[in-house]
Amino acid sequence: MSESESDAKGMIEWSCDACDRSFPVDPGADRVPCPYCGDINRISRGTGSAPPAEPRETPASHDSAERLLRMVRPALVRGHPLASLGSLGLLIGGLAILILSLSGGLPEWSRWPGIAAALAGLGWGLWIFVLGHRWDRLKITDRRTIDERGIVVRSTSEVLHTHVRNIRITQSVWQRIAGIGTLEIDSAAGDGTADIRIVDIPDPDGIKRLIDRHRGLGSHD
């Protein structure tokens, strides 16, 4: 086995916090720059660690051997292109009106509409990028898929790969162009509704292939 092949097997797939693009990282690293946008990603300690040499058949040993394969968040800008442009336009337009009114280029009373527009754009942007889906994330391990939402009020749903009955991907025309989609996972114990449903997730086909590989379908390369 060549050195490059050995190194590749020790790497895990990571999704950039800023641009949502995936790239291989060393699971032992602390901070890794994204090769696409340069954003510094903080890698969780122990991510992708190998299982013990001789694991015993106990629940505790199974939990310790579980490996995180991939973590992704909904694409914020690509998922809300019009809202993103609208919030940015309000913010820039409001600031421009405010500056012109203060410099004498516009009547003094126009500063108040400018302030209102800037605050509206800022609030809209915060709702989209912070309060909306910023704290939603999908984790895929070698045993299960976990959907985590929220930071103060949290909710978690998970489906074991061995219990997956169906995986659905829905994409609009824009989502296909942007490389995102809605991913739904049904379990064998479900009631007909999706146990996990996450919208505007990047690379939904790649996530489906990863889950299929670990539920015994597809290639194991």
Question: Which helices and strands appear, and what pairs or packs with what?
Answer:
Blueprint: H1 3-9, E1 12-15, E2 22-25, E3 31-33, E4 40-42, H2 59-65, E5 68-72, H3 76-79, H4 81-103, H5 111-132, E6 137-141, E7 144-149, E8 155-160, E9 164-170, H6 173-178, E10 180-187, E11 196-202, H7 204-214
Antiparallel strand pairs: 1-2, 3-4, 5-6, 6-7, 7-8, 9-10, 10-11
Helix pairs in contact: 4-5
Describe the fold and architecture.
- This protein has seven helices and eleven strands.
- The chain is α+β, with helices and mostly antiparallel strands and 221 residues long.
- It folds into three domains: 1-43, no CATH class; 81-131; 135-221, PH-domain like, CATH 2.30.29.
- Helix 4 (81-103) packs antiparallel against helix 5 (111-132).
- It starts with a helix and ends in a 7-residue tail after the last helix.
- Mean pLDDT is 78; it is low at 1-8 and 46-62.
What is the class of the largest domain in the CATH system? Mainly Beta
Structural class: alpha+beta
Label the overall shape: elongated
Proper CATH architecture of the largest domain: Roll
**What is the total tally of β strands?**
11
- Order of helix and strand elements from N to C terminus: HEEEEHEHHHEEEEHEEH
Radius of gyration: 22 Å
Instruction: State the share of residues found in helices, binned by percent.
Output: 25-40%
CATH superfamily of the largest domain: Pleckstrin-homology domain (PH domain)/Phosphotyrosine-binding domain (PTB)
User: How many H/I helices?
Assistant: 7
> Biggest sheet, in brief?
4 strands, antiparallel
The overall number of domains is 3
Q: Please list the strands of the largest sheet in the order they lie side by side.
A: 5-6-7-8
CATH topology (level 3) name of the largest domain: PH-domain like
What is the residue-mean pLDDT, rounded to a whole number?
78
Could you name the ranges where pLDDT drops below 50 across 5 or more consecutive residues? 1-8, 46-62
